[in-house]
Amino acid sequence: MAKPGRDGVKKDVLFLGGLVVVAVALIVFLVREPEAAAPEAGQIAGPGSSQVTAPGVAEGSATAGLAVERRMPDDPLAQGDPNAPVVMVMFADYRCPFCAKFSRDTEPELVDRFVSDGTLRLEWRDLPIFGAQSMQAARAGRAAAAQGRFWEFNHAVFAESPERGHADLTEEALVGFAQKAGVPDIERFSAQMRSTEFDAAINADLAQGTEIGVPSTPAFVINGVPTLGAQPTEVFVAAITEAAGQA
């Protein structure tokens, strides 16, 4: 069999190079990153950026594109007035150390400053992307919510999460967090955590995150404008203040 000549090799190289260029162009199109200050050490963000703008959302717009809020009046996975002028939707995983960082460092201040006065509503979305334990933890969160203790459970888990690496959320650990959160019926909690009762709702959150192109956790959408990573608190304060002024 004849060996391919130099011209054939060159054509193959050019073809492969063209595929790489096309792939890079698609990534740039789908995830455009506006210029911003360098991210805080350890936070998740794209190269040289603190924000990610999702497809179909104009940079700097507080009303374009991503209408992901639900505003359900009795949603146990939400905090704040359903009619608040600003809604921040958070896509998160219980095993994500940066989700824990946001929960410990930033969320309490946002609740004190904006949720308490009716400006902001927080809505949680499950995005269990770090394996079977993540899915089990998402079920556990829903089981706690079924007894009115979602946020207490949520905060209990994140309060003890490691700063680096993924938390080891065994069934025993999750039951312990439920007890700390004051879930009244632990037997019921355990049964629901082990069942698939909440899988449809969790998968709906996953589908929503996938649809808008969420690449990692935590990811936030504030009145239609996406932000990726556990940004410094002042980044969220500025975004919420701006969105409230535009609402």
Unreliably modeled segments: 1-64
- Multimeric state: single chain
Using the coordinates above, name the CATH class.
Alpha Beta
Mean residue pLDDT = 81
Please tell me how large the radius of gyration is.
21 Å
| Physical arrangement of strands within the biggest beta sheet | 1-3-2-4-5
Number of helices: 9
The SSE order reads: HEEHHEHHHHHEEH
Structural class based on helices, strands and sheet pairing: alpha+beta
N→C terminal distance:
71 Å
Helicity range? 40-55%
Total number of strands: 5
- The CATH topology comes to Glutaredoxin
> Could you say what the CATH architecture is?
3-Layer(aba) Sandwich
What would you note in describing this structure?
The protein has 247 residues and is an alpha+beta fold. It has a single domain (36-246), classed as Glutaredoxin. It is 46% helix and 10% strand. It contains nine helices and five strands; from the N terminus they run αββααβαααααββα. It has helices at residues 6-30, 97-105, 107-115, 132-145, 150-159, 171-180, 186-194, 199-211, 233-246; strands at 78-79, 86-92, 120-126, 219-222, 225-228. Strands 1-3-2-4-5 form a five-stranded mixed β-sheet, sandwiched between helices. α4 (132-145) packs antiparallel against α5, α4 crosses α7 and α5 (150-159) crosses α6. The radius of gyration is 21 Å and the shape is globular. Mean pLDDT is 81; it is low at 1-64.
